[in-house]
Design brief:
The protein is α/β, with parallel strands linked by helices. 41% of the residues lie in helices and 22% in strands. Helix 6 runs parallel beside helix 8 and helix 10 packs across helix 12.
């Protein structure tokens, strides 16, 4: 009996070649090893990257802000990856998440919101373009429940986008069941670390775009450098393929009345394109991200929209005097806005496609 076991083991073992073996021997050994790996772990467990180029192309979902899509380098947030959006209060994190959902729904996608903050405004979400009749929503009691729901949605393979709003509100069960003032050191960080270890493989396989929003905290006693940090430990920083830092830099006013915010976004981490790009766009209080304002800004940069004094124009079409009037003209004439957007995307797409061909391997190998 021991002899039989040794024979079985030897049939599954790979042959170890001596250093300096010929190329043909190494190739045969590699083929044998690959076939054994596939028999043991299944077809596709190992492959040559060049033979499966489709697997490394980064699919994306537009964010609703063309400037941000361009800054991200792949036309939006990547599918099959984790994205973190963080920033101070009222910087537009939730709004951006809702626009991502709206754009996914326009393309026939199924989306879910895990509202850990219990603060979702359905009316505002609808104004951002979200189909509230179709979007799935969960308002979990604990962080463990929230992340288990996320895992089940991702593993179903049926959901295109999951937005978790926010990491700071994912309260561990032990903290919920404890008393006010009890010390719970590192519970949330351990929770996030364990959850992301389990989630990342499933997220990649299902091609679900998972978006975490996060708040800011300040570290005590920092004398040099920024004291700002994000809750949830370091795990999310490592596992996120894209991290977006959102800041409100100005208030948009009509007369003396505040109508919206000017927002600046920095791509502080990007594993699918070049990082550290920045962009700016408008978020209006009654409509979300201003598509028209974004088109004017990018159009001016690319020469598609012209400015003469206070007047804006595109081609032979005069858009209006002043930026707000030009935005209103585009809002009332969507065909002109569509034409500007098409010109912008046409001008950018060839560059992006060349970059994808040259840098087809976008993972950290």
């Amino acid at each position: 009996m021991p002899a039989d076991r040794s024979n079985n083991n030897s049939s599954n073992a790979t042959t170890t070649l001596a250093y300096g073996a010929s190329a043909s021997d190494r190739e045969k050994s590699l083929e044998l090893t690959v076939s054994q790996i596939e028999r043991r772990f299944g077809k596709g467990a190992i492959m040559k990257l060049g033979e499966h180029r489709a697997h490394v192309r980064v699919e994306s979902i537009p964010t609703g802000a063309i400037a941000l899509d361009l800054a991200l380098g792949v036309g939006g947030i990547p599918r099959g990856r984790v994205t973190e959006i963080f920033g101070p209060e009222s910087s537009g994190k939730t709004t951006l998440g809702q626009h991502i959902i709206a754009n996914a729904q326009k393309r026939g996608g199924i989306c879910a919101i895990v509202d850990a903050e219990h603060a979702l405004d359905p009316a505002y979400a609808e104004r951002c373009g979200v189909n509230v009749n179709e979007v799935l929503i969960s308002q979990p009691d604990t962080g463990e429940q929230a992340l288990e729901i996320v895992e089940m949605l991702v593993r179903s393979g049926a959901v295109d986008v999951v937005v978790i709003d926010s990491v700071a509100a994912l309260v561990p069960r032990a903290e919920i069941e404890g008393e006010m003032g009890d010390a719970h050191v590192g519970l949330q960080a351990r929770l996030m670390s364990q959850a992301l270890r389990k989630l990342t493989g499933a997220i990649n396989n299902s091609k679900t775009a998972v978006v975490f929003t996060n708040q800011l905290r300040e570290k005590v006693g920092v004398l040099f450098g920024s004291p700002e940090t994000t809750p949830g430990g370091r795990a999310l920083k490592f596992y996120a393929s894209v991290r977006l830092d959102m800041r409100r830099i100005d208030t948009i006013k009509v007369g003396t009345e505040a109508m919206g915010s000017r927002v600046k976004v920095k791509v502080v981490k990007n594993k699918v394109a070049a990082p550290f790009r920045t962009c700016e766009f408008d978020i209006m209080f009654n409509e979300g991200i201003s598509r028209e304002g974004n088109l004017i800004d990018i159009g001016l940069e690319m020469g598609i929209v012209k400015k003469s004094g206070a007047f804006f124009s595109t081609g032979d079409t005069r858009l209006g005097q002043g930026r707000e009037n030009a935005k209103e003209y585009l809002r009332q004439n969507p065909d002109v806005a569509d034409s500007i957007e098409e010109q912008i995307r046409t001008a950018v797409t060839p560059v992006a496609s060349v970059a994808m061909e040259e840098d087809i391997v976008v993972e950290d190998l």
